[in-house]
Amino acid sequence: MNEAIRRLELGEFVDRDTMRFVREYPHPPERVWAALIDPGQLSEWLMTCTMLEPRVGGKYAFRAPGGSEMFGGRLSEFEALRVINFSGVWRFALSATEGGCRLSLEMKRSPEGWNPSGLAGNQMRFEILRSLLDGDVATVERIKQSEGWSCFFAAYEFHIQRNITGGAPVIYRIHFAEKNAALAADAKPILERVVKILQDSPGLPCAIVGYCDEDCSEDEAMKLSQERASSASRYLEQAGIASERIRTVGSGNYHRIVPPDTQAARAYNRRVDLRPIY
User: Fold this and answer.
1) Are 51 and 60 in contact (CB under 8 A)?
2) Mean pLDDT over residues 30-40, rounded?
3) pLDDT tens across 254-264, in order?
4) What residues have CB less than 8 Å from 126, skipping those under 6 apart?
5) Do 20 and 144 share a domain, yes or no?
6) Which of 118, 75, 276 is nearest to 194 (CA)?
7) Would you state the pLDDT for residue 68?
8) In this structure, what CATH number is given to the domain that contains residue 202?
9) Is residue 120 part of a domain?
């Protein structure tokens, strides 16, 4: 398959709550299966895996960047060389092909809804897996250090808009001064748009994610990004939106959407994304 075309092979919505990714690899199923059940290999390409008991009912646990536990549970399906199902959140299915194998992932919508950055990150995970299977350690590290996922951000944003939100914007974005969590004047019209959406749809929750692009420690970046998200959350609450409908998180200096090689780019990365959860 042409390399440029392969890299544009996006996941597809099966239904409102399910997205499926399919990849073909020129490797034996045994090699790919090992990357699905070995915690060390899973940690290299999927997410840091701290526990995996490879059997039906076996326990598993993953940790997110920064050390906090992302999720854990028990395997709801397990069939060697065929299926491993992480509580219905991630279901991997493997089958042999003439030239190697086919791997599919069906992932379920989280309580935070479909996030373009998360889906774009999955796109890059499959690229990391391909290089891991090839034994190309240098490329694995290069992909991890890059912001390559941002190339797919707009594609997945459009994907969600077309399939999930009924054409409504997926993200409402505001920006911040360097090392500052105060709302800028130009943020308020955007926040008012979000308030109106939430007032018109009383059952609709909203995710608010803060980001940094500052020269500071990871702990400082996490704190500042959370403060930025909280600033936006307070505005919504003061406008009458119940706090129970708002979910805030800080993501530190992760998920830059443009390369941080100019002051303007870094300013664009210093942001809060408000995402109604459709």
Assistant:
1) yes
2) 97
3) 888 888 889 99
4) 21, 23
5) yes
6) 276
7) 57
8) 3.30.1330.60
9) yes
Task: Reply yes or no on whether the pLDDT at 28 is more than 50.
Answer: yes
Q: What is the 3-state secondary structure (H, E, C) of the chain?
A: CCHHHHHCCCCEEEECCEEEEEEEECCCHHHHHHHHHCHHHHHHHCCEEEEECCCCCCEEEEECCCCCEEEEEEEEEEECCCEEEECCCEEEEEEEECCEEEEEEEEECCCCCCCHHHHHHHHHHHHHHHHHHHCCHHHHHHHHHCCHHHHHHHHHHHHHHHHCCCCCCCCEEEECCCCCCCCCHHHHHHHHHHHHHHHHCCCCCEEEEECCCCCCCHHHHHHHHHHHHHHHHHHHHHCCCCHHHEEEEECCCCCCCCCCCCHHHHHHHCEEEEEECC
For residues 144 and 185, state if they share a domain: no
User: CA torsion 236→239→240→244, rounded to 10°?
Assistant: 10
Which residues make Cβ contacts (< 8 Å) with residue 115, sequence separation at least 6? 207, 275
- Please give the residue range of the domain that contains residue 83: 3-160
Q: What is the pLDDT of residues 229-242, one digit of tens each?
A: 999 999 999 999 99
Residue 166, domain member (yes or no): no
Domain end, chosen from 160, 181, 196, is at 160
Q: How distant, in Å, are the alpha carbons of 82, 147, 157, 273 from that of 252?
A: 37, 15, 21, 13
Task: For 118-174, write each residue's pLDDT tens digit.
Answer: 899 899 999 999 999 999 999 988 888 776 677 788 899 999 999 999 999 999 999
* Cα(33)–Cα(99) distance, integer angstroms: 16
Residues 149 and 261 in one domain: no
- Phi first, then psi: give them for residue 93, nearest 5 degrees: -125, 135
Residue 197 and residue 147 in one domain? no
pLDDT > 60? residue 42: yes
